[in-house]
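Long-time lurker, first post. I've been practising inverse folding by hand and with some scripts of my own, and I keep getting stuck on stretches where the structure tokens seem ambiguous. Below is the full token string for one chain I'm working on. Before anyone asks, I'm not after the true native sequence, just a reasonable design that respects the backbone. If someone could post their per-position residues I'd love to compare against what I wrote down in my notebook.
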């Protein structure tokens, strides 16, 4: 009884902290020049983290590992209810302000100024604010994933990996490079996801401004895109990047985890997926080629056409798709909309995974009870159950190897494996009803 009371008081405290933090952030955002933006803003961020962590601990650690998804369809926040729509609109609104009206975020940008000075020795801007919020989301919700999947070694290591790459490679290291007057560079993002890293303008900028380090950055980007990616995907499938390294995947696997069941499993969704993602990859390859041809010809062949290509891509795909839709729609469309429908890196890795990889998910079909847990929690909308029922291995271009299908399967039917490519598509032999003599 006393424990129940304590639980109630701490839950109340967690929600109160969240409410006060939102108030502080709103004051920071809308307050006049007379308020202390730094005190209000940093208090808001600190309380948001404290309240979030407290509630995560109470809801996840107190719940048995087998009951983590209980009530997921009864809770409006995780089943497209009113609160999910409110959160979706708030997130989308934040992206709209970030991309098109950054001045309206000035209060928050001022609040994080000391952190920016400390890390980057540079004034804060909207991108520093965004990077900070993004990293906090991965860290705090990383604790959620660590507690929720605490009995699964694969999930624990994978979650630590995405936290490490987001914090170290996508936030601290680029900031430190700026502090030492070096070009800002993200070592965990490569072409074609970071499409401009192999554009002639970026390459010449890095070579001119970064000296030896700039040369290494260009070398690193090219080697990772054209050598390491195919080799690592051959051995481990696309999971080495999409579920272990990439920041977009990192956010989806942590902050997006409560929404993974919302992914569309219909055939129509799969047809849209194929119809959109591969043309986007084609577009970025074409744009890169055009830019290089243009650069070599001194701009005489295409004029500014290739530059226009690059700018349109940056606007429609880089901003609207990856940010506004990709993250803003988490609470209503699931956590991997961008990875599934828009990411050129996912398309590139997917082709490699499907045709030149040792990765597969094997299914022990005879054990499957058709409960459908695996399909429900597949964030990429793959109908895993269908494969399990046939005893067929799952070799899909879109599978990011998150391993959640195997985690939620009550019968241990699914296993993520790297094995010989020969007979990779061969399934297990199902035991037919007539082949079993019970008495
Ligand atoms: S099939 Fe399994 S491992 Fe692949 S994306 Fe879906 S849940 Fe993750
Ligand atoms: S979760 Fe396991 S038992 Fe349930 S349908 Fe999927 S493979 Fe079959």
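-- Answer (accepted) --
I ran through it position by position. Result:
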């Amino acid at each position: 009884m006393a424990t129940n009371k304590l639980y109630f008081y701490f839950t109340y405290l967690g929600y109160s902290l969240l409410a006060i933090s939102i108030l502080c952030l709103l004051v920071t955002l809308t307050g006049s020049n007379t308020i202390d933006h730094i005190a209000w803003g940093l208090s808001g961020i600190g309380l948001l983290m404290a309240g979030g962590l407290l509630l995560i601990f109470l809801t996840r650690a107190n719940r048995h590992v087998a009951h983590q998804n209980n009530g997921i369809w009864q809770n409006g926040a995780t089943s497209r209810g009113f609160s999910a729509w409110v959160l979706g609109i708030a997130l989308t609104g934040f992206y709209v302000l970030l991309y098109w009206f950054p001045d309206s975020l000035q209060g928050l940008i001022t609040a994080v100024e000391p952190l920016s000075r400390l890390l980057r020795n540079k004034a804060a801007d909207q991108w520093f604010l965004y990077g900070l919020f993004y990293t906090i989301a991965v860290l705090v919700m990383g604790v959620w994933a660590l507690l929720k999947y605490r009995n699964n070694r694969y999930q624990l290591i994978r979650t630590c990996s995405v936290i490490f790459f987001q914090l170290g490679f996508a936030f601290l290291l680029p900031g430190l490079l700026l502090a030492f007057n070096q070009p800002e560079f993200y070592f965990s993002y490569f072409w074609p996801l970071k499409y401009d890293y192999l554009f002639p303008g970026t390459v010449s900028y890095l070579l001119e401004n970064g000296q030896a380090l700039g040369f290494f950055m260009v070398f690193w980007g090219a080697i990772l895109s054209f050598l390491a990616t195919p080799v690592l995907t051959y051995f481990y499938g696309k999971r080495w990047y999409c579920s272990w390294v990439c920041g977009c995947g990192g956010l989806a696997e942590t902050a997006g985890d409560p929404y993974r069941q919302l992914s569309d499993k219909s055939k129509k969704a799969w047809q849209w997926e194929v119809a959109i993602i591969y043309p986007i990859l084609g577009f970025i390859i074409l744009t890169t080629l055009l830019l290089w041809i243009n650069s070599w010809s001194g701009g005489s062949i295409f004029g500014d056409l290739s530059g226009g290509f690059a700018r349109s891509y940056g606007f429609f795909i880089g901003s609207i798709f990856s940010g506004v839709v990709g993250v803003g729609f988490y609470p209503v469309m699931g956590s991997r909309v961008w990875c599934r429908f828009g990411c050129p890196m996912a398309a590139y890795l997917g082709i490699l995974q499907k045709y030149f990889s040792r990765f597969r998910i094997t299914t022990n079909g005879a054990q499957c009870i058709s409960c459908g847990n695996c399909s429900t929690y597949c964030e990429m909308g793959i109908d895993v159950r269908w494969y399990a029922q046939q005893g067929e291995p799952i070799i899909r271009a879109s599978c990011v190897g998150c391993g959640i299908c195997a985690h939620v399967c009550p019968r241990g039917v699914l296993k993520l494996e790297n094995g010989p490519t020969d007979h990779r598509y061969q399934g297990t032999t199902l035991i037919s009803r007539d082949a079993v003599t019970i008495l």
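A couple of notes from the structure itself: The longest strand covers residues 359-363. Residues 126 and 384 are 40 Å apart (CA to CA). Happy to go over any region you disagree with.
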